[in-house]
Structure formats: C-alpha cells, structure tokens
Write a structure and sequence with these properties.
With about 150 residues, the protein is mostly beta strands. The protein has helices spanning about 1-15, 80-90, and strands at about 25-30, 35-40, 40-50, 55-60, 75, 95, 105-110, 115-125, 130-145. About 15% of the residues lie in helices and about 45% in strands.
C-alpha cells in the first residue's frame, strides 16, 4: 500500500502528463485590437490563439461588466435572448455562437452611452489536474450618434 502512494505522488509531482503546454508558449489575440463604433452599433471580433495542445474552451465578456454581472461578464451565446444583454449590460454585451469553435468569432453590441469599453476573449485548456487560461482585450470606443 505504501509503495502505491509513493508512485502516485511521484507521477503527480513530476507534472509530466498534464497535457498542457507551457504558459509562455501560448499566445492569445483578439482582432481588431481596437475599434470605434457608434452608440448602439456593433463590431465583429475574432479571438485566436497559438500554442495550445488541444482546442480550448472560449469565453467572451465585457471587462467593465464583470462587477455587475460576474458570472457571464455580459458574454452571451447566440441561443440566449439578446434582450438579456440589452437589459442587464450597461457597458454593452458580446454574443458568440458557441464556446467550442476555434478561432472564435463574436459580435460586440455597443451600449447607448458613449465611452471606452473593453471586450475580453479568454481561452482555457484543461487537463485532469490543472488548466491553462490566457486572455486578450480589445478596446472599443463608443461614440455619440450625430445630431
């Protein structure tokens, strides 16, 4: 019994079979990195990554909304009612088709209030014992609609 415990400790301690790449070898990007849209306008974004050993699970959100809507950060799936985003996400919201398609496309829906907002794209690869998560941010400037 004791030998079995030591073998398990050695395997876990080595970290050799986690299947995750080194964090430094993974690069995540969002394009465009910045955009300007009118109030209530939209912009299409694409999140990509290089260096993962498997396709990651992806998530989109609005940095400014993470305090007010902490679970989703105003990142919605296309199957959800867009009225949810419009009603609950005062900094805008982002819609994607699913979390397993990669590279990932999403549409940012700007709020009625002009300002600078940040869309965050996050990619996560998990293994039995650990996960590797990387994020990229796009800066979106929302302008007032003309007179």
């Amino acid at each position: 019994m004791l030998a079995l415990g030591l073998v398990a400790t050695q395997i876990i301690g080595c970290g050799g079979s986690s299947g995750l790449p080194p964090s430094s070898s993974v690069l995540v990007a969002i394009a465009p990195a910045s955009a300007t849209v009118p109030a209530n306008g939209t912009v299409i974004l694409e999140g990509s990554a290089a260096g993962f050993t498997e396709n990651p699970i992806v998530m989109w959100g609005i940095m400014e909304s993470s305090d007010t809507v902490p679970v989703s950060g105003c990142g919605l799936l296309a199957s959800q009612d867009p009225a949810i985003g419009a009603a609950n996400c005062t900094h805008g919201y982002v819609v994607t088709t699913d979390v397993t398609t990669f590279p990932s496309a999403a549409t940012y829906h700007a709020p009625a209030t002009p300002g600078v907002y940040h869309v965050v794209f996050t990619a996560t690869q998990s293994s039995t014992f650990d996960h590797l998560q990387k994020s990229a941010t796009a800066t979106i400037t929302v302008t007032a609609i003309g007179p």
